[in-house]
Amino acid sequence: MPVEKDFKIKEIIQRNYNVKSFRLEITDWLDFKAGQFLMVTLQGNPKLKRYLSISSSPTEKCYLEFTKKLTQSDFSAALGNLKAADTVSVKYPFGEFILDEANPKVAFLSGGIGITPIRSICKYVVDKNTGTDIVLLYSNRSIRDIVFKDDFSAMSRNYPLLRVAHVLCEAEKGFKCTVGQINASVIKGEIPDYQERKFYLCGPPQMVEAMRKILSDELGLGVEKIVTENFQGY
Ligand SMILES: Cc1cc2nc3c(=O)[nH]c(=O)nc-3n(C[C@H](O)[C@H](O)[C@H](O)COP(=O)(O)OP(=O)(O)OC[C@H]3O[C@@H](n4cnc5c(N)ncnc54)[C@H](O)[C@@H]3O)c2cc1C
Question: What global pTM score does this model have?
């Protein structure tokens, strides 16, 4: 059952030029599954309410973290003004974008801020050493848009069954990536065993729908092989 309560902000981390993580102080642990989301309300104002994925893993017991792309909205402005020790109201956990541990091989396709629940799931897999074989295809406009870049590099060093392949619209000298967008041939090239994997897609609704169509219409994967999370609002 989701529970609503006030949390004190423990730490705020700037992830890139327009993305910040907010770590909340935990007093009583409430269990959640990696990949689930929460609802944040600011200043007790129902207009300042958004759904945000939990970007920390249930294995990180010292805080509960969410990560927001800061836009021009009133919500983003209010969030961006918050400081450590300020309070936010949070209701959680919600959602079904969770790892089916029965699948030994999975793939994540993500764009931009859609990485947040995937970061939670990957961190859980790495910390628990579940043995799940993961390929992440992570697409961004440019290198400066990548969120959790160093975090994913560290996770793949510690857990060789996690492979991260970056896809960027703009090439970056000295950075290994595919230039362009995620399409059927990029998926085939980066994930030759794609037919053996369950796919998890997360990002803005248009991107998720485009990825879902590629997997089902062009690569012939059945609906049971595709799990999606739409970040409504982008
Ligand atoms: C399950 C889930 C998980 C999400 N996780 C994250 C996350 O981890 N990080 C993150 O940055 N964002 C996440 N989002 C998106 C987030 O909830 C906001 O919608 C988004 O950040 C835009 O809000 P904004 O205040 O920046 O911009 P706004 O200007 O408020 O939003 C842009 C437009 O989207 C509309 N909109 C806002 N929220 C919704 C909604 N829920 N449904 C339909 N339309 C809406 C607004 O009316 C406006 O027209 C998630 C969304 C969902 C549904």
Answer: 0.95
